[in-house]
Amino acid sequence: MSKVKHINIFQSLYERGNLPMELMYAKIMDTSLEEDGYTWLQQGKNAISCRLVPSYFTVDQLFSCNIRTVDQYNWGYSIDLSNCSSIDDYLSSQFKSKPRSIIRRYVNRLETCFPISYKLYHGELEKEIYNAVFDSLRDMIKKRFQEREETHKEMWRWEGLKQNTYQQILNKQASLFVIYDGNKPIEISLNYHMGPVLFSSVSSYDLDYGKFGLGHVEIYKQLEWCLSNGYKLFEMGVGGMDYKRKWSNHIYQFSHWIITPKENFFLGLVGKIELWKVRLKEYLKSKKMNELRDRVIELINFDKTKKIVLDEVDFSTEAVNGHIDFQMLTLLTPKEVEQIEGLRKAINDFLYTNTLGYSKIKVYKANSNSRGFLVGYNYQGKDKFIELTR
């Protein structure tokens, strides 16, 4: 039986998982863990190997133990709001003029084109709404990752997440941020709360609204909420995706802690062996050997794994001039538009480009051509039409 207990500290911290008793007096930005809802593991039974310890995690008092640390080749991405009083302050300090303009355009264009509302469920949430939102988030993730020919890292434990998160929201340890188009969620973020930190853990969006930069809108609006509610850090977790690098003003390196009892020679030796293993692993990561390993595994499994690829439905757009024979057209309801693959995305792209409200257009199906659709709208007092053909 292994005498090393392995713990993902970052995950356990925010999801209120098991933590070693030795860390009972630890803090996150002056917030004590002792006062929160953790399960504390019995002291002195194992050497404890703690990976992904964030830089703002500190320990003031230890229970007769030794801690050895190793820098990991993993970086965390976060937004420090300590010196900001408004979202405009942060945008001005973090972005140049053109990126600021693009972010604001995403927000303004989204709110112009659709009846948008923003909701952060934190403390109160009906179970029926919770189930609907959580299921929508799962569906968004699946569709988005199928398009990328990948599998999201949280899918294997999704039902467990769904089961645990509802009570955490009621306890104000977690929240769901939702962007609604009318009554339809189009972007969702599952967050965790710890003192002055909000961690955006899992998020996704409706691909039909991809042109509107919903990932940027989500961060923009969540930062507004954080600033209005006294939060000091917006955490985005591990991994240097492009949008994280652009938004982050606090990029830090994770560390790996090995904890052993001071008076136990055997566990001290076990801890030293674990320390050597971790150092070797991080050295290999520094030489990008983990990327080589993943590539080799991918090549080995190439013929064994069949990926689901979503065929994107493309529509061509053309202005229509001249007489329109409405007897040859059928007016579609919003529900019927949603049921035609790719049509809603094509319409949304058109709305974004032309700054038009969805409620101001009418969509027709050509009776003589199952692949053709007509969008009617009013521009500067004149009725205009475009044809969408797939």
TrEMBL record:
One of its GO terms (molecular function) is transferase activity. Residues 98-245 form the BioF2-like acetyltransferase domain. Keywords: Transferase. InterPro entries: Acyl_CoA_acyltransferase (IPR016181), BioF2-like_GNAT_dom (IPR038740). This is GNAT family N-acetyltransferase.
